[in-house]
Design brief:
Blueprint lengths: L1 H19 L5 E2 L4 E4 L4 E3 L7 E7 L4 H17 L4 E7 L5 H11 L4 E4 L4 H5 L8 E5 L4 E7 L4 H12 L6
Parallel strand pairs: 4-5, 5-6
Antiparallel strand pairs: 1-8, 2-3, 2-6, 4-7, 7-8
Length: 167
């Protein structure tokens, strides 16, 4: 009986993982984000760029572990038309987010989702880290939940920058 339960759990987890890393393009929600500095950024204004929208929290160990890679990816691809918006979850205290951004010297936009509306628009995001890779046409081409393979992410960014479909 335990083997059957374990098998069912593995199948469910595999199905969820497949859904989160799905390659079917779907339009990204047309949301307006507010940066830490108060700047309003409509996601639709970033059309023509490849954008990674990453939901994170300062108390999320995986999120913190991925920040050096996020900085590296931003610095490597930004001049080629890549942008990254790190969306702090609504439960994350603003002063914690500000301190994190200052101490880590994050070069990309950090947005606050104080009402949870951005997370809801992206499918009611509750878990972090979760990231959505959006192509130049404003379509979500990849979803990443948890720790992802950074080589695969970079390949996906490079394909999207070249205008090639995600695989």
């Amino acid at each position: 009986m335990k083997k059957i339960v374990a098998l069912v759990v593995l199948v469910v987890i595999g199905g969820l993982a497949t859904w989160f890393v799905s390659t079917r393009a779907a339009p990204a929600p047309d949301v307006t984000l507010t940066s830490l500095s108060g700047q309003k950024i409509a996601l639709s204004e970033l059309r023509g760029k490849v954008v990674l929208v990453k939901f994170w929290a300062t108390n999320c160990v995986s999120c913190v572990a991925q920040m050096p890679d996020n900085i590296e990816n931003y610095n490597k691809y930004h001049s080629q038309g890549f942008d990254l918006i790190a969306v702090a979850m609504e439960y994350d205290p603003i002063n914690f987010v500000q301190k994190f951004v200052e101490t880590r010297k994050l070069p990309f936009t950090v947005a606050l989702d104080t009402q949870g509306t951005v997370a809801k628009a992206f499918g009611d995001v509750k878990l972090t880290p979760i990231a959505f890779l959006i192509d130049k046409n404003g379509n979500i081409i990849k979803r990443y939940l948890g720790l992802y393979d950074k080589t695969e992410l970079r390949k996906s960014i490079e394909k999207a920058l070249a205008g090639k479909p995600a695989s």
